[in-house]
Specification:
Bound molecules: phosphoenolpyruvate, manganese (II) ion
Number of strands: 14
Shape: elongated
Largest sheet: 8 strands, parallel, barrel
Length: about 350
C-alpha cells in the first residue's frame, strides 16, 4: 500500500502516519515529493486494511500497490527524482548528466589527463574503475585503494564528482570513503548482499542493468537499495546479451522509454559498453538522449591503444568533446540542456 499525504501535511502529520505503519507491524518508507509526501509500506504479505489508518488526519489517499516494486514505482513519488552527485551536479532535472573517464584507473598521469579532458570538454562527472570485475582472472584487476586515492586527487584538481565501481561487500566502506557515486556493475546487479550494503550507504548508487536482466529485474534490484533507505539511485542501461555478435552488447533503448514511464528514478545510458566500438559511441549517445535518457556515462581515454581495459570502445578526448557538441544539438529538441 502507498499512503499519499495531503499537500498541507506537516512533519507532525507525516510522523503520525509513519508511527501508525510501525504500530501495525510494517516498515514505512517516507518518499518526499515536490507537491506531497508519500509513504511506501513494506513487510506485508497481503493487502492492508484501510481501517488500520482510521483517524490519521494528514492522509489524503491510500493506494493499493499491485506491482512487486513499491518504492521505485513511478506512482510512489509525485515528481521525477533528482539525484545529487555533489559539487553542484545533479541528474534527473532538465540538465543532462555527462560522465566521462577511463574504464580503469591505470595511473595518476593517465587519470589526471583524462579528468582534465573530460572537464574541458564540458563533462560533469568523472568515471574510472579501481576495482575491476574482469571476465578473465588474468586480466588487469584495478589499482584498488591506490586507484580510489587517485580519483579523489582528480576530483580535487577538476571539481568533478567521482563515479567508481564497488565490486563486493568487503570494500563498500572503503569505496564509500573516497567516491561520490557508488557504481554497481552489470555482473553484480543481482548480488543482493551488495545491493543491501549500498542501500545502507548515504551516497548515490549508479545501478547498471545486468547482462541478461529484464527491466523488471532491474527495477527490483533498485527496490533492494531503496528498501534499505538509500533513495539516491540512478539506473543505467548498458546493453544486454542477444544473439548478435557484431556489437559487444545490444543497447536496449526501448528500456529507456519503458523505465522513464515505470520509475521516478533517473535513467542514464552507457553507450560505450552498449556497442563496444569507439565509433559507435556518438550515434548511440545522441540516440539515447533523443529516447529520453537523463544522461550518459562514456569511456574516455587519452591513449585508447594503450588502455588496460576497454580500449576499443574508449573515445579520445577530442572525440568526447565532439560528442558533447552533438548532444548540445539533440538536447533542446527533447527539452533538455547539456
Ligand atoms: C564499466 O563501467 O567499466 C563496467 C565494467 O561496466 P559493466 O558493469 O556495465 O560491464
Ligand atoms: Mn569498461
Amino acid at each position: 500500500m502507498l499512503i499519499v499525504m495531503k499537500p498541507e501535511a506537516d512533519k507532525a502529520a507525516v510522523d503520525e502516519a509513519l508511527e501508525r505503519v510501525r504500530e501495525i507491524g510494517f516498515t514505512p518508507h517516507e518518499i518526499p515529493g515536490a507537491g506531497r509526501t508519500a509513504i511506501g509500506i513494506t513487510g506485508n504479505d497481503g493487502a492492508i486494511s484501510p481501517d488500520l489508518f482510521h483517524g490519521v488526519a494528514g492522509i489524503a489517499q491510500l493506494i493499493p500497490v499491485t506491482k512487486p516494486y513499491k518504492l521505485v514505482d513511478r506512482e510512489a513519488a509525485d515528481s521525477q527524482t533528482v539525484v545529487d552527485l555533489t559539487h553542484g551536479v545533479t541528474v534527473g532535472g532538465d540538465k543532462l548528466l555527462i560522465v566521462g573517464g577511463p574504464c580503469s584507473v591505470e595511473g595518476r598521469e593517465q587519470l589526471l589527463e583524462a579528468a582534465h579532458a573530460v572537464k574541458d570538454a564540458g563533462g560533469n562527472a568523472l568515471r574510472g574503475g579501481a576495482f575491476k570485475p574482469r571476465t578473465s582472472p588474468y586480466a588487469f584487476q584495478g589499482l584498488k585503494e591506490e586507484g580510489l586515492k587517485m580519483l579523489a586527487e582528480a576530483r580535487e584538481a577538476t571539481g568533478l564528482p567521482v563515479v567508481t565501481e564497488v565490486k563486493d561487500t568487503d570494500t563498500v566502506s572503503m569505496v564509500e570513503r573516497w567516491a561520490d557515486v557508488l557504481q554497481i556493475g552489470a555482473r553484480n546487479m543481482q548480488n543482493y548482499s551488495l545491493l543491501e550494503a549500498v542501500g545502507e550507504c548515504r551516497k548515490p548508487v549508479l545501478l547498471k542493468r545486468g547482462l541478461s536482466a529484464t527491466i523488471k529485474e532491474l527495477m527490483l534490484a533498485a527496490e533492494y537499495i531503496f528498501a534499505r533507505g538509500n533513495q539516491q539511485v540512478i539506473l543505467c542501461e548498458r546493453g544486454i546479451r542477444t544473439f548478435e555478435t557484431a556489437t559487444r552488447n545490444t543497447l536496449d533503448l526501448g528500456a529507456v522509454v519503458m523505465l522513464k514511464r515505470m520509475t521516478h528514478l533517473p535513467v542514464i545510458v552507457d553507450p560505450s559498453h552498449g556497442i563496444g566500438v569507439w565509433y559507435g559511441v556518438k550515434p548511440l549517445a545522441m540516440a539515447s538522449i533523443a529516447a529520453g535518457a537523463d544522461g550518459l556515462i562514456i569511456e574516455v581515454h587519452p591513449h585508447p591503444a594503450k588502455a588496460l581495459s576497454d580500449g576499443p570502445q574508449s573515445v579520445k578526448p577530442k572525440r568526447f568533446a565532439d560528442i558533447i557538441d552533438g548532444l548540445s544539438k539533440i538536447a533542446p529538441a527533447v527539452g533538455r540542456t547539456v
